[in-house]
Each structure stands twice: as C-alpha cells, then as structure tokens.
Amino acid sequence: MKNFMIKNIEEIKQASDVPTTLKYLGVDYSGSGLISCPLPDHDDSTGSFGVNEKDGKSLWHCFGCNTGGDSISLVKVMKDISYNEAVFEVAELFGIEVEFTNELAKEQYLNQTKWDKFYEWLADYWARGEWRYSTEDKKSEAIIYLENRCIERSMISSLNIGFSTGEYVYSVLEKAKELGITVEELIEAKILVSAL
C-alpha cells in the first residue's frame, strides 16, 4: 500500500495504549511486569517484553529482540501489515477518524484500498477454482495448458495460479462493481480482455 499523508497521526498515537492493543491482538497482559514476547519472529519464554506508560505515552519494548514502539508499530509487526494499514486499524480500535492532509491523499488511499481488496478477493477466487482439481483422466483445459508450459501442480498451488473462463466473469464483474471498479478499469488492469 502506498504511503499516504495522514494529518492526525499524533492524535492517534496519543489516544492509543499498548495494553488495550495487546488485548485486541489476543495477548494476555495483566498490566504490569514482563511477559513472553508475543512478536511472531521471537520465540521467547523468559519474559522480556514490557510496557511503559508515562508522560502521556504508551510504549512497548522487547529486551530479547531489542525492538519496540507504540501501538501502531505493535499492530504492524504482529499482523505483518503496512504502517498505514496499522494506523487505520489502531484508529478504528480507539474510535478515531483518520484525517488526510488533503482530498487528493484521501482519494488515492480509497482508490488503493479498493484495488487491494479486489486483488485479494480475486486471487482467492481464482485460486480455489474447480478447474484446478480435475482428475488425471479428465484434465481441464487449464491444467493441460499449464502442464504443457512445464508448470507442476505444486507450483500452481504455491503461487496461487488461477484461471477464469467466461462463466467466472460475472462474479468478477459483480465484485468489481461492489467495490466501485469499472469495466474500463478492469480492462486497463488486464484483468478482463475487451472483446472489441
């Protein structure tokens, strides 16, 4: 996701607190002392993760992996998402509306968000297509095409390779319409091919 200009990021940081964020993330934190580090890349059982709340700031730090920050950075690391996605998630958690520096930044964010949602849906939709699961004695056209290009089934699964025939187009168009994406934009993005 592109880095958009958020006007009230300091307000979001000030309003958020790490203990509430930890609870939101499913981490059991009593409010004092050190706990095992909940970060995904740190296998810790010694209690090296702590929270410090003073001077109007709520910060976390892990002495084992020597990393720390505020609620936004915690959500970013724990959920493996972009900084902006974490800002929006924390803002929503604490009931704060994100303000953009200008209308162009807001428009760019909303446009990027709709495409992110669409591509995520599309990858899942095509990856679970029934064409992929045809039997050896009755291979689908797509499987034959991919095998002729030396693409094995294990690669198809690991790369989430998808295939769409005419019958799937209606679902794609319906989802695009729901997200505010036009047919022209789908053609420009090479998701659909114009029959003209």
Q: Helix and strand string, N-terminal first?
A: HHEEEHHHHHHH
Rounded to the nearest angstrom, the radius of gyration is 22 Å
Q: What structural category do the secondary elements indicate?
A: mainly alpha
Strand content: 5-15%
How many helices? The count is 9
Write down the overall mean pLDDT: 82
Please give the share of residues in helix: 40-55%
Question: What's the number of structural domains?
Answer: 2
State the strand order across the main sheet: 1-2-3
Shape: flat
The first-to-last residue Cα distance is 33 Å
Uncertain ranges = none
Number of strands: 3
Largest sheet: 3 strands, antiparallel
Question: Could you please describe the fold and organization of this structure?
Answer:
The chain is mostly helical. It has 2 domains: 9-93, Zinc finger, CHC2-typedomain (DNA Primase, Chain A), CATH 3.90.580.10; 103-188, no CATH class. It contains 9 helices and 3 strands, in the order ααβββααααααα. The chain has a 3-stranded antiparallel beta sheet with strand order 1-2-3, covered by helices on one side. The protein starts with 8 loop residues before the first helix and ends in an 8-residue tail after the last helix. The mean pLDDT is 82.
